[in-house]
Amino acid sequence: VQLVESGGGLVQPGGSLRLSCAASGFTFRKYAMSWYRQAPGKERELVAVISSAGGSTDYSDSVKGRFTVSRDNAKNTLYLQMNSLKPEDTAVYYCKMPGPYWGQGTQVTVSS
Fold first, then answer.
1. How far apart are alpha carbons 23 and 3 in whole angstroms?
2. What pLDDT does 59 receive?
3. Which parts of the chain have pLDDT scores under 70?
């Protein structure tokens, strides 16, 4: 199993970023997928979940209405569109599949 995140960076408050997670080594379309994040000094928290076919999603209250999780099963890729970013969204973002499988993370920094 390999999960490789990309798309992080430095963005101003109110800006947008789209994260991607390229998956390989398993049948991507069969599994629900998740995005987590971990801010400095804080525990890792669940941000968004999407069902295997993409028809069902769920979000933490802190990102609901601003973030959108999606997937392209033909490309074995998971996405997280982040809009109206706030400084408190600063964290390392990870994609995850069921089991002990995590990506290496991508840093998102929201700052002016």
1. 5
2. 98
3. none
**Residues whose CB falls within 8 Å of the CB of residue 68, separated by 6 or more in sequence, listed in order:** 57, 80, 81, 83
Determine the pLDDT at residue 1: 94
Q: DSSP class of residue 13?
A: T
- Would you say 19 and 104 are in contact if contact means Cβ atoms under 8 Å apart? no
**Could you give the 3-state DSSP secondary structure of residue 43?**
coil
Residue 33: other Cβ atoms inside 10 A: 23
Per residue, what are the HEC states of 85-102? CCHHHCEEEEEEECCCEE
Rg of the chain over CA atoms, in angstroms? 13
